[in-house]
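Reviewer comment 2.1 asked that we show a complete input and output for one of the modelled complexes. We chose the pyridoxal-5'-phosphate case, as it is the one discussed in the main text.
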Amino acid sequence: MTIDYNLLRVSIDLRAIQENYRLLCSKGTRLIPVVKADAYGHGLVDVARALASCGADFFAVGTVEEASNLRLAVPGTVLALLGPQLREDFQAVAEQDILPLVARMDQLWLLQEQAVSKNVRLPVALKFDTGMARLGFAPSETSPVMEALQRCDRLDPQWLISHLATADDPDQAVFVREQAGRFEHILAEFHRAGFALRASLLNSAGILAYPDLGWDGQRPGIALYGVNPFGDTARESLGRGLQPAMQVRAPVVAVHPLAKGASISYGRTYTAKQDGIVAIVAAGYADNYSRGLSNKGLMLVRGKRAPILGRVCMQMTAVDVSAVPGVAPGDQAFLLGGEGTSAIRPEELAAWWGTLPYEAFCLLGMNRKDFQGR
Ligand SMILES: *Cc1c(COP(=O)(O)O)cnc(C)c1O
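Response of the prediction step:
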């Protein structure tokens, strides 16, 4: 049983995600929407279905379990970017038409074993590390991987994948080119040896900034959810037109005056400089609204920005509504999004929070009423 202990409401505008997808389609040749981590908190199945209805037929999730959950919901290919890790993952891959990303030799052997025992042929995607130093075979393992694949006669290598570390940083284009050079070299070796691999290197920022590195598939994540990876950089125009899709709101549960000189919330970290009015909003760090936003963040109340006063509590946060007429209990305060030109953008929330929109989305998305995780 789960108890609904919070009053936050997360709403997702699937049409915005569809429009972002169409915008990205005009820049990429074949998009592989990244819907890992519950579609960055936006809802795995709903987002994937919305994109499938726009023509998407290849999706990337994280775990094999996520892939299983998505498998029945959409047609096409489902790639598990974390690859098979648990014993049951290997079985699921073999039984459920999931494309596994393979980054270690032992995964090749175990997949081959599954394929033999089920008497099937299994497609695989190969991950090589070209500079992220996270997951993937080293470039120097290219020959050993090819030899292993020759022995794994039931495996069908289809894709070569790598991931860029600095595509969103205009000052680090040189490193993108280094990674791309290594990638191209690995791909050429496979092609020379007769492996007809297709190739995919680009994430959102890469799609927008390096269209010449598109190869056969591009993997947009954050841009689908309406964040411009180049926001506030000299290359901002690359991501113009993307629209955020997530809104998060919570009700005002009390409104009261705060007199000049009075303090508010734990630790008395804020003292009123003049007479004012505060609204108490039913959202706090138990809802993944970070305590790091204390005295830093803003919410949107009745179309106006209201600064957070004092510490964010477990289920409540105080905001200054002195300049917002008529606020009353039951009003909605937007933690993210909201109406009009003052709507709180994911980039702003993330900056106050000291993080990125990626993390803010994942954490706040866990408040979705249909969130399936944990
Ligand atoms: C998350 C992820 C992406 C998407 O990255 P964005 O920056 O969100 O576009 C692409 N490829 C891999 C391997 C990833 O893990």
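The longest strand covers residues 246-258. We note this here for comparison with the apo prediction described in Section 3.2.
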